[in-house]
Write a structure and sequence with these properties.
Elements: H1 5-15, E1 20-24, E2 27-30, H2 31-47, E3 55-59, H3 64-75, E4 79-82, H4 89-98, E5 101-107, H5 111-117, E6 126-130, E7 142-143, H6 144-150, E8 164-169, E9 177-182, H7 183-196, H8 206-212, E10 221-224, H9 231-243, E11 247-250, H10 258-268, E12 272-275, H11 277-293, E13 305-309, H12 315-322, E14 328-335, E15 338-345, E16 355-358, E17 362-365, E18 380-384, E19 391-392, H13 396-402, E20 403-406, E21 409-412, E22 416-420, E23 426-431, E24 436-438, E25 441-443, H14 445-453, E26 458-468, E27 472-481, H15 493-500, E28 512-515, H16 529-539
Parallel strand pairs: 1-11, 3-4, 3-5, 5-6, 6-7, 10-11, 10-12, 12-13, 13-14, 27-28
Antiparallel strand pairs: 1-2, 8-9, 9-19, 14-15, 15-16, 16-23, 17-18, 18-22, 20-21, 22-23, 24-25, 26-27
Helix pairs in contact: 1-2, 1-3, 2-3, 2-6, 4-5, 7-9, 10-11, 11-12
């Protein structure tokens, strides 16, 4: 087995050198240029003493340079480390130190932050700065573009499928953890998903994949709307389409700009849009509705599918999107620790919110280790045995808790709870780490959040538990209105609570609702439950 991302991309560049690989911020990079620029990045890294297993922090917005730098790291058999550009000084130091980073590729916008922390990072021997027009070159840093233009492309080398690939996950609680995979197996996983999803034979080698490329026509053109620093944007929005010989379109602009995204889809004939649940889908739908109402609808005829992972994607929002285009909506249930299931919604069939078909090798176990029987109504933890990570980097205790054997089979238990329906599908409830215990009953915030968000005036919602003398905890919703209804909202706290009674058991109904200007989330759309808890505690006088 010869799979390795660097070797795969080299082979693709050899057979389709003139096809476009990357588009972003006015740049178009052909496959031969993508590979050559990656080789020059690799040369700069090796000149500074980096090599096999070296860790390189990538501290960038979505951009062609993100993928070029990552390709260069793969070429030296190193491990790219995704850096959250929202992190403050202490969080950055923790991440880069924990990852044993020896180099950091950063854009000039963050030069002041790098200057602030560089003395606390003795392992880092190279700071590679990308000019984004905001700051001059940081003293002691190396200019990215000038250095790679001056470098001689690093010759290709033989690589091992055992090289470690790692993605840091923040989750909703705790410090970031590096989830480790064998790089070859990880690469092969995406090749398998990409070819099988197109009805093609699954190739057993890079040569076999390259022979299939003419059948992947047209090649995918992907737009990751979510950050490439997170798994959904990198894995589904970038590595997957590149592994199929496709093109990745990016914008470095921060914040969700739905009109810009639809304009990029039009301009570049995007075939795959990658998002994170309703956090992205609702604003995107509103932009489509508004453009249609103006009599100037966006042309989404090139779009074949919208892919989402990581956050609930409601059936109502999916139905709204399908009014504008006949594409497939692929809802993937998974985490950095492993994929678990999926559902596909089309105009012919809209799938119920949070209902997924299980991937092969995925089971649901009760807390005492019993398989949950279909239709029993029992709640259990979702576990996957398909492609299980090696563990968390430098954290054997958490590794043992998350990746463990049941009945002789090794599973990953990311922490998601679900029930198993009579037909074998599952209904996702949410993470146990944020589960609310009220009067001895378990309430999963995501289920309540979806009920609240069904109200037409509510744009977003997070649900938390706050201390209660009688019940231990009580359920509190933190909700926001959409811009179009903020001034004329037709619901108050009592009305919204009453509305949820039609969708929830009595003990799950929020006891209070806190209205805020905007529900805070991470750039990847994930819930910020720490913020929501604080907002709820302040509102109830705690």
């Amino acid at each position: 087995m010869d799979f390795h991302f660097a070797t795969l991309f080299e082979a693709i560049a050899d057979v389709q050198p003139e096809r476009t690989a990357l588009i972003g911020d006015g740049k178009r990079v052909k496959w031969r240029e993508f590979d050559d620029r990656g080789a020059r990045v690799a040369a700069v890294l090796t000149e500074h003493g980096l090599g096999s297993d070296s860790k390189v922090g990538i501290y960038l917005h979505n951009s062609p340079e993100y993928l070029e730098a990552q390709h260069g790291v793969f070429k030296i058999r190193g491990c790219p480390i995704n850096v959250n550009y929202r992190y403050k000084a202490d969080e950055l130091v923790y991440l880069l130190d924990n990852a044993d980073a020896e180099a950091v590729v950063f854009q000039a916008q963050y030069a002041a932050r790098i200057w602030e922390i560089r003395s606390r990072l003795p392992k880092v021997r190279l700071f590679l700065q990308i000019d984004d027009g905001t700051e001059s070159l940081l003293k002691g840093a190396v200019d990215y573009e000038r250095s790679i233009r001056a470098a001689t492309s690093m010759p290709r080398i033989v690589r091992s499928p055992e090289d470690i690939y790692m993605l840091y996950t923040g989750g909703t609680t705790g410090m970031p953890k590096g989830v480790m995979y064998p790089g070859g197996g990880f690469c092969q996983f995406f090749v398998t998903m990409g070819t099988a999803g197109r009805g093609l034979p699954v190739p057993g080698s890079i040569a076999a994949l390259v022979a299939l490329l003419p059948q992947i026509n047209p090649a995918p053109i992907s737009l990751p709307a979510c950050p490439q620093m997170h798994g959904t944007g990198m894995w589904l929005g970038s590595l997957m389409p590149l592994a199929m010989g496709g093109t990745v379109v990016t914008t470095s602009k921060l914040g969700l700009d739905p009109d810009l995204l639809w304009e990029l889809c039009e301009t570049h004939r995007v075939s795959e849009l990658v998002i994170v649940g309703d956090t992205f889908a609702k604003p995107l739908l509103a932009a489509l509705d508004q453009a249609a109402a103006r009599g100037n609808p966006y042309d989404v005829s090139s779009l074949k599918q919208i892919i989402s992972s990581g956050v609930m994607w409601s059936a109502e929002t999916k139905s709204g999107l399908l009014k504008h285009g006949d594409f497939a909506l692929l809802d993937v249930m998974g985490s950095t620790e492993g994929g678990m299931g999926s559902s596909v919604t089309t105009r012919a069939e809209v799938v119920r919110t949070a209902k997924f078909n299980l991937n092969e090798g995925v089971r649901v176990f009760t807390d005492d280790g019993r398989p949950v029987a279909p239709g029993s109504g029992e709640i259990g933890k979702v576990a996957t045995s398909g492609f299980v990570p090696l563990g968390y980097y430098k954290d054997p205790e958490k590794s043992a808790a998350t990746f463990r054997e049941v009945g002789g089979t090794r599973y990953s238990f990311p922490g998601d709870y679900a029930t198993v329906e009579a037909d074998g599908s599952i209904t996702l409830l949410g993470r146990g780490s944020v589960c609310i215990n009220t009067g001895g009953e378990k309430v999963f915030p995501e289920e309540v959040e979806e009920a609240v968000k069904r109200h037409p005036d509510v744009f977003d919602c997070l649900v938390v538990g706050v201390p209660d003398q009688r019940f231990g905890e009580r359920v509190v919703a933190v909700a926001s209105f959409g811009d179009s209804v903020r001034e004329i909202a037709r619901v108050d706290e009592a009305g919204l609570i009453e509305f949820t009674r039609d969708h929830l058991s009595g003990y799950k109904v929020p006891r209070q609702v806190v209205f805020v200007e905007r529900v805070r989330r991470a750039p990847n759309g994930k819930a910020d439950y720490k913020w929501a808890k604080q907002a709820a505690l302040v509102a109830v006088g705690r």
